[in-house]
Amino acid sequence: xxxxxxxxxxxxxxxxxxxxxxxxxxxxxxxxxxxxxxxxxxxxxxxxxxxxxxxxxxxxxxxxxxxxxxxxxxxxxxxxxxxxxxxxxxxxxxxxxxxxxxxxxxxxxxxxxxxxxxxxxxxxxxxxxxxxxxxxxxxxx
Length: 141
Prior knowledge:
Distance between the termini: 39 Å
Strand order of the largest sheet: 1-2-3-4
């Protein structure tokens, strides 16, 4: 999977530099950031990528930036829900009834959470260290 990541990154002509931050093999996920000269607004964005194994080799299936408290890539299943936590009091994230995975970003106060889901319309809430909960995304019926 990591070889497929590097192969894919080397194909990107507009990316000047990138860093693999974390590989989560159990979910086929890699967290990385990129640097594009002259694009200060998008530099250092935290991007989550999902890989699938097909024909005996890994391929990048989808990737999306986790630039806010929550975002999602809704191309097809599994859906990737992700976001960035910046407040120390934000302890856990729940996507539907499932607890999301949280990745500590080394050298930063940011943490990235993600969850792979079969549901394209999930409710998302964050649990604070004091036990209270805040909605990040509520489903409207």
